[in-house]
Specification:
Number of helices: 10
Radius of gyration: 18 Å
CATH topology of the largest domain: Globin-like
GO biological process, one term: photosynthesis
Number of strands: 0
Membrane topology: Peripheral membrane protein
Keywords: Antenna complex, Bile pigment, Chromophore, Electron transport, Membrane, Photosynthesis, Phycobilisome, Thylakoid, Transport
Distance between the termini: 24 Å
Helix content: over 70%
Subcellular location: Cellular thylakoid membrane
Order of helices and strands: HHHHHHHHHH
Number of domains: 2
Structural class: mainly alpha
Main location: membrane
Length: about 180
């Protein structure tokens, strides 16, 4: 598992040269935007239950057969497992965003996930759709794109650092895309 600093050290070691130039500028930028990164992670983690339950609900609305007898979200223990897995994926995306590196997501979450789901008979198309919905919701929380009109009575405005967080939202979206790619 790497973070931005460990990755820079490993990269310099393989080149047998000290950290400098672009790598140093990249690390300075990583530190300078630390509060925005923490706010982005907090936006995801603080809303994790809503993000996951909305994603699973959206997936089920698009494929109602999942909750009917014989469906993969029936009975309630399967639904609970689906919600649990969604929260695990979201947690590892948050870890990757915090570290600024996808290695924790790849090593601890995605390694063997598709094979496990296939062995258990979990429909990966439905899982991919839930991850896409989590991606949209999470990036909206990071960029403050969520609004009372979209959230209704469950809307909760969070205080975040001022400035453009689109780069962090793009980074988080990339981590969700890794999950989709691993399941496809």
């Amino acid at each position: 598992m790497l973070d931005a600093f460990s990755r820079a050290v490993v990269s310099s070691d393989t080149k047998t040269s000290p950290i400098g130039g672009g790598e140093l500028a990249s690390l300075k930028q990583f530190v300078a935007e630390g509060n925005k990164r923490l706010d982005a992670v907090n936006a995801i983690v603080s809303n994790a239950s809503c993000i996951v339950s909305d994603a699973v609900s959206g997936m089920i609305c698009e494929n109602t057969g999942l909750v009917q007898a014989g469906g993969n979200c029936y009975p309630t223990r399967r639904m609970a497992a689906c919600l649990r897995d969604g929260e695990i994926v979201l947690r590892y995306v948050a870890y990757a965003l915090l570290a600024g590196d996808a290695s924790v997501l790849d090593d601890r979450c995605l390694n063997g996930l598709k094979e496990t789901y296939i062995a258990l008979g979990v429909p990966t198309q439905s899982t991919v759709r839930a991850v896409q919905i989590m991606k949209a919701s999470s990036t909206a929380h990071i960029t403050n794109g969520n609004s009372e009109g979209r959230g209704g009575s469950r809307f909760r405005k969070m205080e975040t650092a001022q400035g453009d967080c689109s780069a962090l939202a793009g980074e988080a979206a990339g981590y969700f895309d890794r999950v989709v790619a691993a399941l496809s």
